[in-house]
Amino acid sequence: MSGRTGGRWAAVAAAACAMAAALAALPPAAPRDAGGRAPAAASVRQVAVRAPAKCADPEASLRPSIADGPAVQRIKSRGRLIAGVDQNSYRWGYRDPATRELSGFDIDLVRAVAKAVLGDPDKVTFLAIPTNQRIPALEKGKVDIIARTMTINCDRIKQVAFSTAYFEAGQQVLAPKGSPVTAFDDSLKGKKVCTAKGSTGESELRAESHGATVLTVPNQLDCLVRLQLGQVDAVITDSALAAGQAAQDPSVRLVGKPFTTESYGVAMNLGDQDLVRRVNAVLEDYRRGGAESPWMVAYRKWLAADLKGITAPPEPKYKD
């Protein structure tokens, strides 16, 4: 690793520690009831039990609305949106070592939500949330939204509510150049593979490891560091995240093809249905405008260099 790259990782690691401390220090929000306070974790679990056993279309979300319900009123009364994000995913949510500011595709989306709800894109408190703490952070009311390359799936919609899909990706293998690992297949046999705990990659490896030994870590960046240090042979992660990691480190590359199809959504507490509708209204505006839509502008700024050929955002699906 070069001195410049080493400095970048050191800066990111230091920032991660600081943000983790901030998350730990943040007091849990008061329970939300009909007056706008978050349901306790027990209440969320009760709702989750009533979720349908079958799941034909997990990407379908509530229809957009700009009405100010209890959750939106709570955010307005506080004067700030509390957003759980990543600060280690290059191009998506990362702390720019030059500016020390959080930047990326997900960060721009969060600022769009803050502008729509509060009239100011800077009225956001960002909290760095590890992959395996995304759902607990919402259940405990520590954040209003999670915008952190979070895949919508049948298991997760029983625990949290999602917006419509704002990006589509798939799980893929990241390996050093020259590695004998060639795809998510038997070339992984006898290898050590890293993925984030609580991620879709962990679920896929649990279902079929192809003979690999699996190491789980709190964040995807931890996997890249392990790969750079030679402690693992490959990483399983979202193709979108892997493309950003390959852009950071030219000694690694994506191999094989994505072996899943996944949609990213903004996640919220199950009880905050008015906020889900409001975020969906923001996404409607964010997608609107063709090649000059805010979505396409953000794509060209952050992702086009590594994820080529995308010409439009995913079409929204609604269930009522």
TrEMBL record:
CDD domains xrefs: PBP2_GluB
Metal-binding listed as a keyword: no
GO cellular component term, pick one: extracellular region
Stretch forming the signal peptide: 1-24
Entry keywords, A to Z: Signal, Transport
SUPFAM superfamilies for this protein: Periplasmic binding protein-like II (SSF53850)
GO terms classed as biological process: amino acid transport
Solute-binding protein family 3/N-terminal domain ranges (all copies): 80-306
Gene3D superfamilies registered for this protein in UniProt: Periplasmic binding protein-like II
Record-linked InterPro entries: Bact_solute-bind_prot3, SBP_3_CS, Solute-binding_3/MltF_N
Keyword 4Fe-4S recorded: no
Family the entry assigns: Belongs to the bacterial solute-binding protein 3 family.
Protein name stated in the entry: Glutamate ABC transporter substrate-binding protein
Species whose genome carries this gene: Streptomyces triculaminicus
Lineage: Bacteria, Bacillati, Actinomycetota, Actinomycetes, Kitasatosporales
